[in-house]
């Protein structure tokens, strides 16, 4: 997981223009493990950048996903969630409370088998179930 200093270094290496808003979104996403929605990110980032709009949040999230800084996926209710950890990992999604838990294990995919079909842009690892809290 990258801290703020590393985020800045990574940005400079890539020679990309990362606005203070993008850095703020990244900082927030890398400080939590709750896989928030854009609305939650908006509420949190607004505490530090009061003038930011929800539209700006959405645009910056798309940018960060496209550049591979963060991951975007749909939860059990098909609501888009964001993850500050772009490394391959599995999401265990509770079908009752919709909480998303990280499992740091990488199922291997034989990418060669997909060569005939086309180019892989994204691989998602999702496991659905009922968490222990909901199962009590
Ligand atoms: Zn649950
Ligand atoms: Zn995750």
UniProtKB/TrEMBL annotation:
Tagged with keyword Cell division: no
Cofactor binding: number and manner: Binds 1 zinc ion per subunit.
Domain of life: Bacteria
GO function terms (MF aspect): DNA-binding transcription factor activity; transcription cis-regulatory region binding; zinc ion binding
Family annotation (Pfam families): FUR
KW Secreted (keyword) present: no
UniProt keywords, alphabetically: DNA-binding, Metal-binding, Repressor, Transcription, Transcription regulation, Zinc
Matching InterPro entries: FUR, Fur_C, WH-like_DNA-bd_sf, WH_DNA-bd_sf
SUPFAM superfamilies: Winged helix' DNA-binding domain (SSF46785)
GO BP annotations listed: negative regulation of DNA-templated transcription; regulation of secondary metabolite biosynthetic process
Positions annotated to bind Zn(2+): 94, 97, 131, 134
Obligatory cofactor(s): Zn(2+)
Membership in a protein family: Belongs to the Fur family.
Designated name of the protein: Transcriptional repressor
């Amino acid at each position: 997981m990258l801290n703020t200093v590393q985020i800045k270094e990574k940005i400079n290496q890539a020679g990309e223009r990362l606005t203070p808003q993008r850095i703020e979104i990244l900082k927030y996403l890398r400080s939590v493990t709750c896989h928030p929605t854009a609305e939650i990110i908006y509420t949190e980032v607004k505490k530090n950048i009061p003038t930011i709009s929800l539209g700006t949040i959405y645009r910056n999230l798309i940018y960060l996903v496209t550049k591979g800084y963060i991951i975007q996926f749909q939860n059990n209710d098909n609501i888009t969630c964001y993850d500050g950890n772009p490394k391959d990992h599995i999401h265990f999604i509770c079908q009752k409370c919709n909480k998303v838990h990280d499992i740091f294990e990488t199922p291997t995919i034989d990418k060669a088998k997909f060569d005939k079909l086309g180019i892989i842009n994204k691989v998602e690892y999702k496991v659905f179930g009922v968490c222990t809290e909901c199962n009590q």
